[in-house]
Amino acid sequence: MIIGSKIYRFDEIDSTNEYAKSLIKQAPEGTIVLADRQTAGKGRLGKSWYSPDGGLWMSVILHPPQIALISVITGIAICESLSCYGVLAFIKWPNDILLNGKKIAGILTEIIGNVVILGIGINLNIRTFPEELKDYASSVFLETKKHLGKKMIYQTLCTELNYVYMLLKNKEVPHILMKWRNYTTMLGRDVIIELPDKKMMTGRVLDIANNGSLIIRLPTGKVERILAGECQLKLVK
Ligand code: BTN
Known about the structure:
Blueprint: E1 7-13, H1 16-23, E2 32-38, E3 56-62, H2 70-83, E4 90-92, E5 96-99, E6 102-112, E7 115-122, H3 140-144, H4 150-169, H5 173-182, E8 190-194, E9 200-208, E10 214-217, E11 223-226, E12 232-235
Parallel strand pairs: 1-2
Antiparallel strand pairs: 2-3, 3-7, 4-5, 5-6, 6-7, 8-9, 8-12, 9-10, 10-11
Helix pairs in contact: 2-4, 2-5
The structure holds biotin.
Biotin binds next to helix 1, strand 3, strand 6 and strand 7.
C-alpha cells in the first residue's frame, strides 16, 4: 500500500501540512504525518482550522499523475470511510464534507513542484466548537451521537484513499467521477460561486468534469466550467 508507507505521529504539532512540507525531499510517496491536535491548523483560503483533541488531523505526501482530481478522490475516500460505519456524509465541491448540512471535514491540498501535500481534517469526536464556527461546523459525534474510534477511521481512510489513489494512478477517471456523483447532493442544485477575483456567479450544477471542475448552467443558458482553485460556493436553498 502506498498510503502510509511511512508514518510520523505527534501528540501536538503546529500543522501536519507544514511538517509534511519539511519532509518532501527525503520522504517516500505516501508518507503520513498525523497529530492528535494542531496549534496552527491551516484551512483553505488562508483561514485557520480548529484542531483540538478528538479530531483526525493528517497530511499525506503524494506524487500524483494529475493534481486536479486529488480533492475529488479524497472527498470520496472520507465519505466511503464514514459510510462503512453508517455515517452518510456528502461532498460539497470543491473541498467540504457535510453531515446534516454542517461541515465535518475539510481537505487542503498544497502543491510544491510535482509533490502534493494532502491535508485532511475530520471533526470526529469534537464536542464543542467556538461560537464563531457553531453555525456551520460540527462533528460526527455531535451530528450522530456515535463515537467512532479515531484509529479505526484512520485505518479505514488509509485503505479507501489508497484504493481511489490507485484509480487515479491508473487513469480510471470515469470510475472516480461515478463515485463522486454518489456522494454529492449538488447535482441539479442552484449555487452561488465566488470566483478568485471576488466576482459572483450563479448557476445550476450539471456535473463534474474530468479535471475536477464544476460544470454549471448560467441563467443565460450558457454552460461554464469552474476550476476549484480559490473558489467558494454556497448552495441556494
Ligand atoms: C478546509 O479549509 O476545509 C481545509 C481544512 C484542512 C485541515 C487539515 S487538518 C490536517 C492538515 N493540516 C493542516 O494544517 N490543515 C489540514
